Amino acid sequence: MSRDQIMIVDYDATCAAGAGMDEIRAALADQRSGLRANDFPGCDLPTWIGRVAAIDEYVFTPVLAQWQSRNNALIALGLQQGSLQQSLAKLVERFGSARIGVVMGSSTSSIDRSEEAYRHLDGLGQLPPQFLQEQVLNPHAPGLFVAELLGLDGPNMTVNTACSSSAKVFATAARWLRTDIVDAVLVGGADTLCQSVLYGFHSLQLVSESPCRPFDGARDGINLGEAAGFALLVRGDDAQGIEHTGIHLSGYGESSDAHHMSHPHPEGEGARLAIEQALEQAGLAPAQIDYINLHGTASRANDHIEGNLVGTMFPASTLVSSTKGWTGHTLGAAGILESIFALEALSSGVVPGTLNLAKVDPEIAIKMTAANQTADLTHVMSNSFGFGGNNACLIFSRIGVQA
User: Fold this and answer.
1) Which of 92, 250, 291, 301 could covalently link to 397 via disulfide, CB atoms 3.0 to 4.6 Å apart?
2) What secondary structure does DSSP assign to 106-164, as a single string?
3) Catalytic residue at 295?
4) Contact residues for 369 (Cβ-Cβ < 8 A; gap 6+)
5) 13 neighbors 78 (Cβ within 8 angstroms)
6) Which residue in 244, 248, 265, 295 is the catalytic one?
7) In terms of DSSP bridges, do strands 247-256 and 6-15 run parallel, antiparallel, or are they unpaired?
8) Which of 2, 26, 3, 24 is nearest to 12 (CA)?
9) Options 15, 329, 379, 393, the catalytic residue
10) From residue 19, how far is each of 56, 293, 295 by CA, in Å?
11) E-assigned strands of 244-389?
């Protein structure tokens, strides 16, 4: 392994499909969706959501009470899963906490706590003391809370670029590692359901009243969800003697076409640029990508534009799917959650299907199936395209394989 390779040491996620990778793997294998009829408190919209019920049972200790929010509760739950903290402890022991960076992605941060605060204004219109949370009512709250929870002292930032947020964290981490700013990076993403998200997307007429159907001819909108995901990254030469996944970040691309506040570029030019950058950095031709986890939100416009772009750029033999039928669209957490689905496919050889797909829209030049498939994968891609034309594309590859 070379110094320039960015190795994936460990990863884990929590979403509506399961808390931790064991539950998520079982849900993927059984094609068991985590979507449920909307039961989010205070919201009467007729839709389906990807809710993580365990958040409501999480109790902040007195020491952490000042960090209370739904988003931070999900972060804490996500960090409790699997072997992530054990892997991190080994890196801290080796490099020291000041040499471990944190890059989090989010779009709502802790807006849920802001909403709750405004519902509890006193008679003078002032916030009660328990809501005076400078580090929570803050776009950087996810990064700050992760550092507090894990005792990390290194560089720390939170990326807020809508739905590409926690895909872009991998690119930032790679730059930090290659310029020797840090020796390891914990990347992650977390977004939770809240009234602003649910009613905001409803006002855009993007929310479906049924379980979402990405790329289906009868699709009629998205389902919103919540998730937290994390991954640990190190340079290739520092991975020696460390248990790791055998997978590295081989390429990434980022673009901002700024075509429209919420509508993607009609020809997907920003998305194309991000994909081309990732392929060039990885030294790969489109035909060498074995599987693509598509952004695939199930909105009419997004699926049409992304599907035709991918259908034009990649051969029909490239396996593709959207996993939002398991989780809903988790916004700022979608990038890392779907990267983890791509990593799982690369590791296991099991390619998830596109849940709820009956027939691909005949106006979309792409082939996919609702059924899971098995394949020998070497290179996989994950697309994340956000509002404002913020686009990110990631490529992960098994080590020891030449382009």
Assistant:
1) 250
2) -SSTTHHHHHHHHTT--TTSPPPGGG--TTTSSTTHHHHHHHHHHT--S-EEEE--GGG
3) yes
4) 321, 353, 354, 357
5) yes
6) 295
7) antiparallel
8) 24
9) 329
10) 14, 21, 22
11) 247-256, 291-293, 319-321, 350-351, 373-374, 379-386
DSSP string, 46-102: S-EEE--GGGGG----GGGGGG--HHHHHHHHHHTSTTHHHHHHHHHHHH-GGGEEE
Paired tokens of 332? 């700022």
Burial class (CB in 10 A: 0-12, 13-18, 19+), 123: exposed
Q: Which of 15, 163, 212, 393 is catalytic?
A: 163
* 58 Cβ neighbours under 8 A, 6+ residues apart: 73, 74, 76, 77
Can you spell out the DSSP letters for 176-202?
A: HHHTTS-SEEEEEEEE---HHHHHHHH
Is there a contact between 46 and 38 (Cβ–Cβ < 8 Å)? Answer: yes
Catalytic annotation on 163? yes
Supply the mean pLDDT for the chain: 95
- Neighbouring CB atoms inside 10 A of 134's CB total 9
* C-alpha pair distances (Å), 348 with each of 7, 220, 256, 374, 380: 18, 32, 33, 9, 12
Answer yes or no: are the C-beta atoms of 33 and 24 closer than 8 Å. Answer: no
Q: What is the pTM of this model?
A: 0.96
Q: What is the rounded distance in angstroms from the CA atom of residue 140 to the CA atom of residue 161? A: 12
pLDDT 10s digits, 17-44: 999 999 999 999 999 999 999 999 999 9
**Residues contacting residue 80 through CB under 8 Å, at least 6 positions apart:** none
Q: If pLDDT is split at 50, 70 and 90, which confidence band does 110 have? A: very high
